[in-house]
């Protein structure tokens, strides 16, 4: 373990050199206790592990995948259950699983891990099914499982304790999970009848990854270079290129092209477009201080030229509780993959392998590139006719030497004494037309931070203790639609104070902004009964005189930092000027 002192020393050094440029350890302006928060809970007797959440599109439905059950609830009031279906493990499967040394009471059950729209009428669902992952179709009209009994290997983990991520793209499921009973064979795969593809089972491709997130970034519809849609995966894995104290973790972004068909001989039924790079989130250029990625949110907005993604990180040795948020520009990510240098392994001292920058000749077409107009012009109409030289190169060099660096080359936010778990970001226009990226970041102790970036730096404008028991927040979802609320309900919601603005602001009275967060916590304490605790938090804005929005959005820090309502929870005085957040330097 890295000694506590060393990390402290490093942090102090960072403070000294960068204290004026980054919001280091900002203190929340307002703190709300659980009694100030109007929590709505959904809990089904006997059902635990509510681990897969999916928001319906435009129909106010939230789908919940739990242990041996799937639910549909009203997303505006999650206590209002609309449908449920049970999906239990058969006794036979349970017995087989127990024979292999797994626990009948916990592991040999069906944990729902994949919950995705196949189309508007069918959900694609997969569960661990007593270490025999299985997928099925859920008909939304009747809320019945079809009973397809598809082999879920490569789409859903065997072991419910293992990490997983998936995204449905045009009816094909892309997953990051493990492929075997032991959980020792990691895989990024595409489940497609026409062209199923997977990663090579080799350390340079995936090295004990912990999957966090996956999503598709569509090609620019007006692009002239014939680029492809790309699927991005985010995970932490064991580094091959850095060696510090034993296993050193590293955060990664990997991508594949949607049009990939695999190779003809080399890389047959394997990705020809799999490339990965390090995600840098540190103050010092090459210091892997924040080397565990916990969550990613891809922010898309009509006024953003390209998507921007936000990620929360913690250090591998986090005994001090340190977290960071970094934001990245998608075009920079693409540049690393399309123009960056590759890494290669070199054997030194007999069997020891070292990874270094590859500076030799790179074959053409460029290894790992999508089939674009340029490739087509050279008669490579599909990955199936790429030359062996290109394919062999990408097989041996899936790792880029260049890292993906955050916007402005530094974290947006660094916070001490918290472990951030999840993030969602909403882009909101204030009354003065200034656009803010409002970050909602949750912690492993049941709190939610609301932070905005202003000219003076990053400010945590609110801390809300959502869960009285300090359970970790495991899932945060942002609804696409603005949420309207009854005035009575909004009264008990914490507010941003006077003059706040948001898309959901509705004339007189109260409204909730577009930022509805759906949160999930699992009991952190084993002695407690497992309880499904799901809650919804609306964060209110108030009506009122139009004040300078930046000031109004950043209410004065209350003396003592204590909780409670600010003038009855509705209005808080705007400070004459923003107290600057300055750190030691
Ligand atoms: C949805 O997918 C199912 C299964 O592939 C198919 O039977 C059904 O026709 C599809 N429905 C729509 C509306 O496309
Ligand atoms: C299921 O929930 C229980 C109680 O909250 C927790 O202890 C356990 O780790 C969870 N299991 C999985 C596989 O998530
Ligand atoms: C594509 O072109 C159309 C029409 O010129 C324009 O409205 C749209 O914003 C463009 N889309 C992108 C992503 O550039
Ligand atoms: C860190 O950066 C310095 C200078 O930029 C370089 O000499 C050194 O090799 C880097 N260290 C690592 C571990 O990348
Ligand atoms: C992303 O990077 C490109 C190139 O550096 C730049 O033009 C663009 O403004 C950046 N976008 C954002 C949102 O920072
Ligand atoms: C591509 O193939 C066509 C037809 O087989 C041939 O005429 C053309 O010369 C080829 N182009 C290149 C760049 O190899
Ligand atoms: C953060 O996580 C670490 C390791 O998981 C733990 O030791 C520490 O107590 C946590 N700190 C806080 C403030 O939650």
UniProtKB/TrEMBL annotation:
Q: Which residues form the signal peptide?
A: 1-23
* Keywords associated with the record: Glycoprotein, Signal
Q: Which InterPro entries match?
A: Semap_dom, Semap_dom_sf, Semaphorin, WD40/YVTN_repeat-like_dom_sf
Residue ranges annotated for the Sema domain, each copy included: 19-495
- Supply the PROSITE patterns for this chain: SEMA
Task: Give me the ranges of the annotated region Disordered.
Answer: 556-585
Protein name, per record: Semaphorin 4D
The UniProt gene name for this protein comes to: SEMA4D
């Amino acid at each position: 373990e890295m000694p506590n002192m060393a990390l402290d020393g490093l942090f102090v050094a960072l403070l000294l050199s960068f204290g004026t440029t980054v919001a280091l350890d900002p203190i929340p302006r307002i703190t709300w206790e659980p009694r100030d928060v109007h929590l709505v809970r959904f809990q089904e007797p006997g059902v635990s592990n509510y681990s897969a959440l999916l928001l319906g599109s435009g129909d106010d439905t939230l789908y919940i995948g739990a242990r041996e059950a799937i639910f549909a609830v009203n997303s505006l009031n999650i206590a209002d259950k609309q449908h449920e279906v049970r999906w239990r493990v058969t006794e036979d499967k349970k017995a087989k699983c127990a024979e292999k040394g797994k626990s009948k009471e916990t592991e040999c059950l069906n944990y729902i891990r994949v919950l995705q729209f196949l189309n508007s009428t069918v959900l694609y669902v997969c569960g661990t099914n007593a270490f025999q992952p299985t997928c099925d179709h859920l008909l939304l009209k009747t809320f019945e499982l079809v009973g397809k009994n598809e082999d879920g290997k490569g789409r859903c983990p065997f072991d419910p304790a293992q990490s997983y991520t998936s995204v449905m793209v045009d009816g094909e499921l892309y997953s990051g999970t493990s492929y075997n009973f032991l959980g020792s064979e990691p895989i990024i795969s595409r489940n497609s009848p026409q062209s199923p593809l997977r990663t090579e089972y080799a350390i340079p491709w995936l090295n004990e990854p912990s999957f966090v997130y996956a999503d598709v970034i569509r090609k620019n519809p007006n692009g002239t270079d014939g680029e492809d849609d790309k699927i991005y995966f985010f995970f932490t894995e064991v580094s091959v290129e850095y060696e510090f104290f034993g296993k050193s973790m590293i955060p990664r972004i990997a991508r594949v092209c949607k049009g990939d068909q695999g190779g003809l001989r080399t890389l047959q039924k394997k990705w020809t477009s799999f490339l990965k790079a390090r995600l840098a989130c540190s103050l010092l250029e090459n210091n892997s201080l924040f080397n565990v990625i916990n969550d990613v949110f891809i922010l898309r907005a009509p006024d953003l030229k390209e998507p921007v993604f936000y990620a929360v990180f913690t250090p591998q040795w986090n005994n001090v509780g340190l977290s960071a948020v970094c934001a990245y520009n998608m075009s920079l990510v693409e540049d690393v993959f399309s123009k960056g240098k590759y890494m290669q392994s070199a054997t030194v001292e007999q069997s020891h392998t070292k990874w270094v920058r590859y500076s030799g000749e790179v074959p053409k077409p460029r290894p790992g590139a999508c089939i674009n107009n340029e490739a087509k012009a050279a008669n490579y109409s599909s990955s199936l006719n790429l030359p062996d030289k290109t394919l062999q190169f990408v097989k041996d060099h899936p790792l880029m030497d260049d890292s993906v660096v955050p916007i402005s080359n530094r974290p947006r936010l660094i916070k001490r004494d918290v472990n951030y778990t999840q993030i969602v970001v909403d882009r909101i226009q204030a009354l003065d037309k200034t656009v803010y990226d409002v970050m909602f970041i949750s912690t492993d102790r049941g709190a939610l931070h609301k932070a905005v970036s202003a000219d003076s730096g990053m400010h945590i404008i609110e801390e809300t203790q959502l869960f009285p028991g300090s359970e970790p927040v495991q899932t945060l979802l942002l609804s696409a639609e603005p949420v309207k609320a009854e005035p009575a309900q909004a009264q008990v919601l914490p507010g941003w104070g006077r003059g706040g603005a948001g898309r959901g602001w509705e004339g007189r009275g109260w409204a909730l902004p577009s930022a509805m967060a759906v949160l999930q916590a699992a009991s952190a304490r084993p002695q407690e009964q497992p309880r499904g605790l799901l809650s919804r938090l609306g964060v209110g804005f108030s009506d009122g005189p139009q004040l300078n929005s930046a000031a109004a959005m950043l209410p004065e820090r209350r003396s003592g930092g204590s909780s409670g309502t600010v003038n009855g929870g509705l209005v808080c005085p705007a400070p004459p000027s923003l107290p600057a957040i300055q750190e030691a330097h």
